[in-house]
Specification:
TIM Barrel, 13 helices, globular, disordered N terminus
């Protein structure tokens, strides 16, 4: 297993990751022993046999808030996230899609070529871009005409870059995963998306990664490498449990495990732990597939009548539409209290010229 790069954190603080990951899942893990012995020969053979088996699960990995979600919000911070994340996605052969908030391409109203280059980097890596709106508004509190205008504003730069490759944005990810508090707004916006060539990008595995990521940023700004490493270890264990929860939800609702759509964000935490995060998914039997392949499953055509303030997964929408309530949804993992404490306690922002 590769140790993640935690900014300037001493690598010795990261050695705990190996042991933590070994215990992340109840499923057997391939042996990673550095030196073979008679005692490990059988387990090594078993590991090779498992590696030769075709994965039985599929997951599309999606990232919101491109070019990056960062506590500092600087172009340098965006570069750190983008460079490491793209390297990791290519290295692990993950055909990810990134959903863009184009407001982040601007500083004081001026389009920044360096930030536009981060999106071009995604395309040059063979990855896809989608629309996450311009400014990340909430459909629950924004008049529909203003919300729709924001969506169109969010495709200007992305669309121009994709046109250079002969493509166009085709997926839209709702900010906050909120789709409307009344059925009329929900259906009207769905019709608007279809009219403009968009398909909704659903989510089947949601999580509190955004809490972990901001806590991780806070630890890094404070130069607390030990805390950053502890958060990273906890995050990997937590995400393993999240997969287990949503796999069980799929079986309970559908009778089988659908190809999953994982929601993550383009942040430094994911950039730094993309290798062990990918390992976790592989160890759970997942193959990485493009979003369009996952959406071929007929479950994604399930009725969705959910309206409300909640930004919830699509299986939970389908379950509510089917009449499920209460205990059906119980057991969703949460970030531990120590992570939430760090999340709630932001450090002072370093002095500087602002988000340049």
């Amino acid at each position: 297993m590769r140790a993640p790069r935690l900014g300037g954190a001493p690598r010795v603080a990261l050695l705990a990751l190996g042991g933590a990951l070994a215990a992340c899942s109840s499923e057997p893990r391939a042996s990673r022993a550095a030196e073979p012995s008679l005692d490990t020969a059988a387990s090594s053979a078993d590991a090779r046999a498992r590696d030769a088996m075709a994965p039985t699960r599929r997951v599309a990995v999606t990232f919101d808030d491109l070019p990056a979600n960062s506590f500092l919000g600087t172009t340098a911070a965006f570069a750190s996230v983008t460079d490491s994340l793209l390297e990791g996605l290519v290295r692990n052969e993950i055909p990810a899609i990134g959903f863009v908030n184009e407001t982040k391409l601007y500083v004081e109203g001026v389009l920044q070529p360096a930030r536009t280059a981060f999106l071009r980097g995604w395309l040059e890596a063979g990855l896809e871009l989608g629309n996450h709106s311009f400014s990340h508004p909430d459909i629950s509190t924004t008049p529909l005409d203003e919300y729709q205008a924001d969506v169109l504003a969010g495709e200007e730069v992305t669309g121009r870059l994709m046109a250079e490759t002969g493509a166009a944005p085709r997926y839209f990810r709702h900010p906050f995963l909120r789709t409307g508090t009344d059925i009329e707004t929900k259906r009207a916006f769905e019709a608007f998306l279809a009219e403009h060539g968009y398909e909704v990008a659903p989510v089947t595995i949601d999580n509190q990664e955004w809490i972990y990521a901001r806590a991780y940023d806070h630890a890094q700004v404070r130069d607390d490498a030990e805390l950053a490493a502890r958060i990273a270890v906890s995050y990997l264990t937590y995400m393993d449990s999240v997969f287990g929860y949503y796999e069980a939800q799929s079986r309970a609702l559908l009778g089988y495990e659908l190809p999953q759509v994982l929601l993550l964000h383009a942040n430094q935490l994911n950039a730094d732990v993309i290798d062990p995060l990918a390992d976790m998914m592989r160890d759970r039997g997942y193959a990485f597939v493009p979003l369009e392949v996952a959406l071929e499953d007929p479950a994604y055509d399930s009725p969705d009548e959910y309206v409300g303030w909640g930004g919830i997964t699509w299986p939970h929408r389908w379950a509510l539409t089917a009449g499920e309530r209460g205990d059906f949804f119980a057991g969703e993992p949460e970030a531990p209290e120590f992570v939430q404490e760090v999340f709630r306690d932001p450090p002072p922002r370093p002095p500087g010229p602002g988000p340049r």
